Known about the structure:
66% of the residues lie in helices and 7% in strands. The protein is mostly helical and 245 residues long. It folds into 2 domains: 2-66 and 199-243, no CATH class; 67-185. A two-stranded antiparallel ribbon has the order 1-2. It has a two-stranded parallel sheet with strand order 3-4. Helix 1 packs parallel to helix 3 (48-57), helix 4 packs antiparallel against helix 8 and helix 4 (67-90) runs antiparallel to helix 10.
Amino acid sequence: MTTLVNVASGQVLGVVDGRHSTAVEAWLDARSHAWRDRIQIVAIDPSAAFKKAITTALPTAGIAVDPFHLVQLANLCLTRVRQRLVQEHQQRRGRTIDPAWAHRTLLLRGDDTLSAQARDRLEEVFATDDPTGELGAAWGVKEGLRLVLKATTLDAARVARTRLEGWVTAADTPETSRLWDTLNTWWPAIEVFIASRVTNARTEAAITAITAIKHIKRTERGYRNNEHYQARILLRSAHRAQRHR
């Protein structure tokens, strides 16, 4: 299902079957023109289907891409580089004897969160288990994206983007090039996020809050009628939002 949430209050507005543009667009089209005209910004995952539905049904609304999911893509890019390198040079999967594998979670942490000891371990990884320099270059690209997303003004974000482009060019790997293409595709939505700082964090929180309802359905104490199940989610969300006002 796709859950639509008011990013200001965290209240669930609707739940539709599927995660495709047709379902989301149909739900939006069912709202009044006055309701749709009040929507200024919609925060989404980097999903082409969601983007298509919003562009069609809410042509005047800005689209902000969620930064958490962009960082996830950058982390996935780095992980794929690490996996490819061990396959190319060791003809096997990573093992605990490989510094890059042993510190794979450390590679995914933000540079600004690292202690001095963690930085030393990371430098050791690059010095001993990065024969081509590609892993370090991919790590730099990942951190470059985080700097773009941390920018507080559009001018600063554009400067950081230009710097990131240089790092992507220097990295010269298929994984970082694909990540760069994705960022270019979503750049207008990234700028909306930079300017507004609107994310879909409240959507994730709302989904977490209704886990109990999913548990009811899984343990066969739920509803056979999907509309009743969706109505239960909406009622629980409305009660939660009212309680937290």
